[in-house]
Design goal:
By secondary structure, the chain is an alpha/beta fold. 64% of the residues lie in helices and 7% in strands. Helix 3 links the parallel strand 5 and strand 6. Bound molecules: guanosine-5'-diphosphate and magnesium ion (MG).
Length: 713
């Protein structure tokens, strides 16, 4: 007779990059479901497996360094463990970096859950020539340990057997040990946990010692939980305040510091007894490197040097494939022209779609290089140092050092940058950073600058483009000061900034990251931009003005009668103007004129701006259509540049400058707006749209009217 299958629920916890996902994949193979944790956009992976007569269900918790309630990830992981109470927690630890990774382990042990320590990256550990007395390690921790090399599937059986042994209560290694925090808080902890037990009559479901430590640390969520569950919480919390003050007085340190130090002391003690360190210690090497890279004075110039390298690589290396893409787009267009009968469909495909998407696609190589560079900085561990270096500077602007990374990524594309704000611990920092981010000029705005600066500022074009980037940065920083002193009055909290050891990035990791981010951009081109280009082109072609036909006939007559070329040219231009004004786009453009006239913009510019909401690059493709240059309207396109310079359109350098400022500051593209809504909610999204449009208008107004007053026109 078959025994009924029992279910075991296993959760995987561990630091980011400890190989958690690899362990999860090794255990569950293809039986995975990916979704989100309820209410937030953090990925939740679950999977299952039948093993030794059990149905084992796995959940991959978000990677965290700790289990406080600061970041979304930490909150999710902790809540899952406390509320869902999985049977076993596999704590995935990077064995080559034990001292850092065990910080989380101590917190799991404090929670009194059944932990298996998975010493992953065992291959790296062995290569480092270090030695670990695993028996002793298990004994001291009171938890079984297993070694694995997850990405090669080594240690799978052992890990699964450890799980079974643990649930069948056959594990010799398993016992709950108290994690001690040292004499300085021990008395207080014992006292407090006894009080907790008295007043709860054992209904808390978590060890009282854990709760006591959390209360001393001042953990807001645990305080809230206590309020909900204990009738006498108020009196107890007053007592906690008293105890915390006492700890603070006797140690001259915050209680949370003392406890954290206690945990590190515990780890130090454990490792001193079990680990024989290798001559070459990765942490030690990192510390040496950090002495230079995060140097108080040298750190910043070194970082600026890296950035300079990255941006020049983006532009110089990107130039070649960009040229090839342009040639390809033209070739593709010519082929279609040759294949299709001339008429509406051919025009739509070649002028509308290939022209529109092509003018955007040419930026893909540069963007991919930028993303690759950012991935290298991230995977090597240098990005974490950048946050560290920039922290002091960022605080001036009401931001956290970690906000710097999303801001930096904003130069590439606002969308992944917004997603990168998830690494920030507090909601305040996430919202503030997200709101400031769109001011960092994304790669999509570059075509507009290149076009206008090239057309109106000749030899100074490069400087003008640079000025736009600078203006964006200054705006973000200025707004940071304003917002953090008005809307976000409450203090920015300080956090530990983890400095993970440096490591050589793997090719697979780098390409994976680069691809993930570039894919967002490619999807945007194949979807939104393609549709927008087609729709725009159609709206710019219908309805057809009968006067155009008359003019065409007249042109043909003039050409036949060998009239002066100038006369013919001016008639051709007049024809284009008449044609576009009669179309839907032309009419829409006239509607926005009252709003943008004070900025010196004409209706064509207005239409381009409206369409730029789809994607900023579309501003350029729209202009191609509106100024009727015909075929491809890339920013390099000489004909579009010439057309803009035509005095008939009345664009002076001052207007051009005001226009670039407007493009820099007004709403980010629709994809970014959607990302903002997803990450920080609809209210902030509307706030962002409102403040950006107003700011753009005011800034362009000041530039244009101010410039006129100064006689710059
Ligand atoms: P997570 O962030 O904790 O989910 O980590 P991942 O599973 O994404 O792994 C991070 C990187 O470490 C990947 O490049 C893996 O291929 C690699 N990795 C995972 N396990 C091991 C291991 O046991 N040994 C080595 N050398 N690399 C590993
Ligand atoms: Mg992972």
């Amino acid at each position: 007779m078959e025994t009924p299958r029992k279910t075991i629920r296993v959760a995987l916890a561990g630091n980011p990059n400890s190989g958690k996902t690899s362990v999860f994949n090794m255990l569950t193979g293809l039986h995975q479901q990916v979704g989100n944790w309820p209410g937030v956009t953090v990925e939740r992976k679950a999977g299952h497996l039948e093993y030794a007569g059990y149905q084992i269900e796995f959940v991959d918790l978000p990677g965290t360094y700790s289990l406080t309630s600061y970041s979304i990830e930490e909150r999710i992981a902790r809540q899952y463990i406390l509320e869902e109470q999985p049977d076993v927690i596999i704590d995935v630890v990077d064995a080559a970096n034990l001292d850092g990774n065990l910080f989380l382990t101590t917190q799991l042990l404090e929670m009194g859950v059944d932990v298996i320590v998975d010493l992953n990256m065992w291959d790296e550990f062995e290569r480092s020539d270090a030695q670990l007395d695993i028996r002793r390690f298990e004994e001291l921790l009171g938890a079984p340990a297993v070694t694995t090399v997850a990405h090669r599937g080594q240690g799978r059986q052992e890990l699964l057997q450890a799980v079974i042994r643990l649930v069948e209560d056959r594990s010799e290694r398993h016992r709950h040990i108290p994690v001690t925090f040292g004499t300085r808080v021990e008395d207080v902890l014992v006292k407090l946990s006894r009080r907790l037990e008295e007043s709860s009559s054992g209904e808390l479901g978590v060890p009282s010692r854990y709760l006591a430590a959390k209360l001393l640390e001042g953990d807001a969520h645990i305080v809230e939980m206590l309020h909900n569950r204990l009738p006498k919480a108020k009196a107890l919390l007053l007592e906690v305040e008293g105890l915390r003050a006492h700890v603070q007085q006797s140690t001259r340190l915050e209680a949370s510091r003392v406890i954290a130090e206690g945990r590190y002391g515990f780890i130090d003690g454990l490792l001193r007894e079990t680990l024989i360190s290798a001559a070459f210690d990765r942490m030690e090497f990192s510390r040496q490197l950090d002495r230079v890279l995060t140097h108080r004075i040298l750190g910043l110039p070194i970082f600026v040097g890296f950035m300079w390298l990255l941006f020049s690589a983006t532009f110089t290396l990107g130039a070649h494939p960009t040229g090839w893409l342009e040639i390809m787009a033209t070739f593709f267009g010519d082929c279609l022209r040759a294949l299709l009968p001339s008429g509406f469909v051919a025009d739509l495909l070649v002028e509308g779609i290939i022209g529109g998407v092509g003018s955007v696609a040419v930026f893909l190589p540069s963007i991919m290089i930028l993303f690759l560079g950012i991935s290298i900085l991230e995977d090597s561990g240098y990005m974490a140092r950048v946050a560290f270096i920039m922290d002091r500077v960022m605080h001036i602007f009401g931001l956290h050092g970690k906000s710097f990374i999303p801001m930096l990524m904003g130069f590439g594309c606002t969308v992944p940058a917004i997603m990168a704000t998830r690494t920030l611990e507090s909601q305040r920092d996430r919202v503030l950073t997200t709101l400031l981010l769109p001011n960092m000029s994304c790669a999509a705005r570059l075509p507009v600058y290149v076009l206008f600066a090239g057309a109106f500022f000749g030899a100074h074009a490069g400087n003008v483009v640079m000025l736009m980037y600078l203006l964006g940065i200054l705006t973000a920083l200025g707004l940071g000061i304003i917002f953090s002193r008005t809307i976000f009055r409450h203090e920015a909290v300080s956090f530990v900034m983890e400095l993970p050891p440096y490591r050589w990035p793997t090719a697979r990791g780098l390409l994976g990251h680069m691809w993930e981010r570039s894919w967002v951009y490619i999807k945007k081109m194949g979807g939104l931009i393609l549709i927008a280009s087609a729709v725009l082109w159609i709206l710019g072609s219908v309805p057809h003005d009968p006067r155009v036909d008359l003019m065409e006939k007249q042109i043909a007559r003039l050409e036949a009668s060998s009239a002066p070329q100038e006369e013919i040219d001016s008639l051709i231009q007049e024809k284009s103007a008449v044609a576009i004004e009669y179309t839907v786009i032309g009419r829409l453009g006239k509607l926005v004129v009252p709003v943008i006239a004070p900025l010196g913009f004409d209706w064509r510019m207005g239409v381009s701006l409206v369409t730029g909401f789809v994607a900023k690059e579309v501003v350029v493709s729209s202009m191609g259509v509106l100024y009727h240059v015909g075929d491809e309207a890339g920013e390099e396109s000489e004909s579009l540049r010439k057309a803009l310079q035509d005095p008939r359109f009345g664009i002076t350098p001052l207007v051009a400058f005001a226009f670039m400022v407007f493009v820099l500051l007004y709403v980010p593209c629709i994809v970014a707006v959607v990302a903002i809504r997803r990450e920080i909610g609809a209210r902030w999204m509307w706030f962002d749209i409102g403040y950006q449009v107003s700011l753009a208008w005011v800034a362009a107004f000041v530039v244009y009217q101010g410039g006129r007053l100064l006689g710059l026109e």
